[in-house]
Design brief:
7-stranded mixed sheet, 2 domains, 5-stranded mixed sheet, about 325 residues, D-Maltodextrin-Binding Protein, domain 2, 12 strands, alpha/beta
């Protein structure tokens, strides 16, 4: 065969192989397609790329020490095993970036992502949000609060944070960073400019830091602080709240986009049939009664809006995501 013709064949083959088979990706990572345009990764078209693992790996958002939650979710994991017929394993992770990377690499199948990091998980890890906790009235929510020591008479408003050292959680955290940047900047107090930001890595680290005097104040989720008080980790008399935000959706539960569809449906069934009352989950998450379906585009619209307004980019190369990865185990 003439070299020129052989070269043309190789070029044609390479071009065909490199051609993008995805009709629409939106802003998702290049690993994923979104041809139904719901903002979430579609299942792989190639059946060989669908996953049907013998053991389902699950984790909860590392808003506190992961050891706190392994026992809390034990009854629920048994329920998943009963409904799906699969074994389960809890995978304790130390930070949001590790959680996202674990699903992206296929080591994590089901996960609760914190409100802000869920957006990154959807875009970077192919996470498919499908559930949120509920209480007796409907979907459960939480607020960003600014807490400071109860005895601190110099901080009584957001304006008083100027010149202080304030704990934020991490760059992708909604209540622990993105929401404070969004709301406070519009109130004339720019985090990182008007006050020093100290990233603590977790909500409980921030709360404990305030109580122990390591930080002047902290931006945290009120539900985390309430659970810490309920467990006796801190006392309600140790701190005061000087700001409360509008309500946000709590952690979003998601599974990996490449799970075999029948397995994904069984996972959904396990969530929707689990009742919290009398279980290890109900003991930890008081006031919550179970799960309910979530519509990511609708229910996370305000969260995404805040991130976009703050200039966030939902890619592995974005500055905020790189900083999150560089923080190691914090």
């Amino acid at each position: 065969m003439p070299i020129a013709i052989f070269g043309m064949i190789l070029l044609a083959f390479a071009t065909a192989f490199a051609a993008d088979p995805c009709a629409h990706r939106g802003k998702l990572d290049t690993l994923y397609c979104d041809e139904n345009r719901d903002g979430i990764a579609d299942p792989p078209k190639d059946p060989a790329k669908l996953a049907n693992p013998d053991t389902l790996v699950y984790t909860y958002a590392p808003v506190e020490d992961p050891a706190v939650y392994e026992g809390a979710w034990s009854d629920f994991m048994k329920h998943i095993e009963k409904v799906t017929g699969k074994k389960t394993r809890y995978f304790g992770l130390q930070n949001y970036a590790a959680q996202i990377e674990a699903m992206r690499s296929g080591r994590l199948h089901i996960s609760a992502y914190s409100t802000g990091s869920l957006v990154y998980a959807v875009h970077i890890a192919g996470a498919v949000p499908f559930a949120i906790m509920r209480d007796a009235k409907g979907p459960s929510g939480y607020h960003l609060i600014i807490m400071t020591q109860a005895k601190n008479d110099k901080i009584n408003s957001v304006a008083d944070l100027k010149g202080k050292r304030v704990a934020h959680v991490s760059q992708t955290s909604n209540s622990g960073h993105q929401a404070p940047v969004y709301f406070f900047s519009r109130m004339g107090v720019v985090p990182g400019k008007d006050y020093q930001i100290a990233f603590s890595g977790k909500h409980d680290n921030s709360a404990l830091g305030v109580v122990n005097g390591d930080y002047d104040a902290a931006a945290v989720a009120d539900t985390v602080v309430e659970r810490m008080v309920a467990r006796g980790v801190i006392k309600a008399s140790d701190y005061k709240v000087i700001y409360t935000s509008p309500v946000f959706p709590t952690a979003g539960f998601a599974y990996s986009h490449n799970l075999e569809p029948k397995l994904a449906e069984k996972i959904r069934e396990a969530f929707m049939t689990f009742k919290f009352e009398g279980t290890s989950v109900g003991k930890e998450f008081k006031g919550r009664t179970g799960f309910m379906p979530v519509n990511y585009q609708k229910d996370w619209d305000a969260v995404v809006g805040i991130l976009v307004a703050n200039g966030a980019a939902f890619t592995k190369d974005s500055p905020e995501y790189k900083k999150l990865q560089q923080r190691g185990s914090e």
